[in-house]
Amino acid sequence: MLACDAQRRDGRTLLHSNAVSIALPILMLPVPTQRYSCHGCGNCCRDFTVQLRDADLAKLREQKWEDKLGMPVTTEFRGTTYLRQREDGACVFLMDDGLCRIHKEYGFEEKPIACQMFPFVLVPDDVRTHVGISFACQSVRENKGSELRTHLREVDRMSRAVPETRVATYSAMLADSLSAKEQELDTLKQVLDHFLAREDVVLRDRFDGLAWLVANLGRAKLAEVRSTRFRELVTLLASALPGELEHLPLEPALPKQMRLLRQAVYARLEDVQVNSAKSKGRLKTVLTQLFASRAFTRGKGRVPPVARGILEGCDFAAISAVSTLSESPDRDAIDQLLSRYARATIQGNRAWGAGYYGWPAVRGLQALALNLACTAWTARALAAARGRTHASLDDVRDALGRIDRHAGRAPWLGSVGERMRLEFFRLDDGLRRITRESI
Ligand code: SF4
Questions:
Q1: In whole angstroms, what is the distance from residue 73 CA to residue 387 CA?
Q2: Which of 78-92, 129-143, 225-239, 312-326 has the least mean pLDDT?
Q3: Alpha-carbon distances of 107 from 63, 101, 112, 242, rounded to whole Å
């Protein structure tokens, strides 16, 4: 393992190898209000399908699990090898006490690298590797544990096992066919981070403001506003918030916009298990998803099965009766959670580039605004399924965990269909209207 030195630069922690190496320097997520340590809840072991690398397979063979457990511990699906799951979707190594059997018998560093790395997400750009964090982790959502900088050495060690995370693979783009010039994305991050951290802006205005700002960037002729002028534009837009929103009142979301929002929610909650897909077969799996997606999009009657039944027994009318997040008694805590999520996603480079399907920054930010609206809708749906008419902090935490677990990973969320959905939300103030409708 290479020895490393942590340095402070521009208020951010950078880690450099002191050995000769081409690895990019690591930048730990610069959101000081975010904390994390694993508290062993085991949720990630119940929830994720773990893809294995050759080095993981070699370790598992050396550990002789097949002999010990009397069954295969991996499974193949469409040319990829995964850790095997039990019928309920949990990892075969998850024990009754919630701990990992590999960890217990051989130690943390002998687990598959994806298990070690979670919830950290490494995103290289052309000059450094950003450390983002997934809100699919319960401790991240609850903001429990150590300051993130204390994990820097460990993240650096783990990144050596995933060399592609330490090389420049992505050329920064501002918009379609428009490369970002030096500092433009940093400017965008700084300005948005400052806005999202403002305590004088109320919950709904903060995220309506984000949707308004990114919609304006989508309309601007950015090719004519470069470098310093880009900074001036973004700063001007952010400084107009939240006051400008008062002059731009909105009608409620259109029925078509709400249908597309539900379709976007379904795409994010969709949760096909390898076990179930293998036993049903591809055609049946695809048809089942198609019918469920259509029923979800229609939004009438009972909510069809989704995400292992989290909305079981709920109907769409009950969801509509749940008040917005801004009317929740937990509004302030919800505000802090969603602000940390949005800031961590942007600062950790998970909103665009290698962190989000190679998308340019403006489209990636529109997707973030849509993810926030999807989180708010899902939180209200969870409240309805739990028999309440307002969403609690726990509802929002659970919703965010579901929405963020696929972000940047599920191919269908980076597809042409998703891009068309975002194009549609650019019309008639779509992003703003669906944001205000649920937040
Ligand atoms: S979800 Fe987070 S806290 Fe829970 S076991 Fe996984 S990493 Fe640890």
A1: 40
A2: 78-92
A3: 12, 9, 11, 50
Determine the distance separating the centroid of ligand 1 and the alpha carbon of 39, expressed in angstroms.
6
The ligand 1 atom nearest the CA atom of 39: 3
Domain boundaries, the chain: 4-38+120-166, 49-115, 172-439
Which among 414, 349, 367, 413 has a CA at the least distance from the CA of 126?
349
Tokens at 253, concatenated: 């979301």
CA distance 102 to 111: 6
Nearest CA to ligand 1 atom 7: 38
Q: Are 369 and 432 in contact (CB under 8 A)?
A: no
Question: Which residues' Cβ are closer than 6 Å to ligand 1?
Answer: 38-44, 118-119, 137-139
What does the pLDDT look like over 285-306, one tens digit per residue? Answer: 778 888 888 999 999 999 998 8
Nearest CA to ligand 1 atom 8: 38
Which residue type sits at 219?
R
Q: Are residues 404 and 118 in contact, defined by beta-carbon separation less than 8 angstroms? A: no
Please state, in angstroms and as integers, the Cα–Cα distance from residue 224 to each residue in 99, 230, 294, following that order.
Answer: 55, 9, 42
**CB-based burial, 168-202: b 16+ in 10 Å, e otherwise:** eeeebbbbeeeebeeebbebbbbbbbebbeeeebe
C-alpha span between 401 and 323 (Å, rounded):
21
**Which atom belonging to ligand 1 lies closest to the Cα atom of 119?**
7
pLDDT in tens, 320-361: 999 999 999 999 999 999 999 999 999 999 999 999 999 999
